[in-house]
Amino acid sequence: MTIDQFLAREAIRDTMARYNHAGDRLKVDDYVACFAPDGIMETRHDDPAFAFRYEGREAIRDWMSRWLERTRTSGVHGASFVRHHLTTCQIDLTGADTARARTYWIAWTDIGADHAGLYIDSFRKVGAAWLIAHRLVREDWRSPDSLFGAAVRNSR
């Protein structure tokens, strides 16, 4: 591995951490800054109420802003806190300015382990930053007591 490859991987890991910190704390501008200008955020689900796709920073910003607004008024989920933890991460550099990553995550709330899954990402270097070009969030497990279960539906 070259120094440039090592630095690229660390920059990608930093973007992943920034994404989770910003998302858990509803820091909308910091969250949106993790995406390329034409970045895509999506999830697929058998139940359409849990599926979404947002293309471009403005669409992602609008979605995250709804989380913030509804949390202040009626709540998007029943948790008093949310903490996403990243675990095993495989990053493959696919070009000088592109990469793919697969990262396991688990979200903790007041009940403990609430839900878990996999981020399937494409990254692109934009200027000096490695940003998310496409993120597919796959939920593999949800606690029957999940406080987060209706959050996606409630953010529409």
TrEMBL record:
<dbReference type="InterPro" id="IPR032710">
    <property type="entry name" value="NTF2-like_dom_sf"/>
</dbReference>
<feature type="domain" description="SnoaL-like">
    <location>
        <begin position="7"/>
        <end position="135"/>
    </location>
</feature>
<protein>
    <submittedName>
        <fullName>Nuclear transport factor 2 family protein</fullName>
    </submittedName>
</protein>
<dbReference type="Pfam" id="PF13577">
    <property type="entry name" value="SnoaL_4"/>
</dbReference>
<dbReference type="InterPro" id="IPR037401">
    <property type="entry name" value="SnoaL-like"/>
</dbReference>
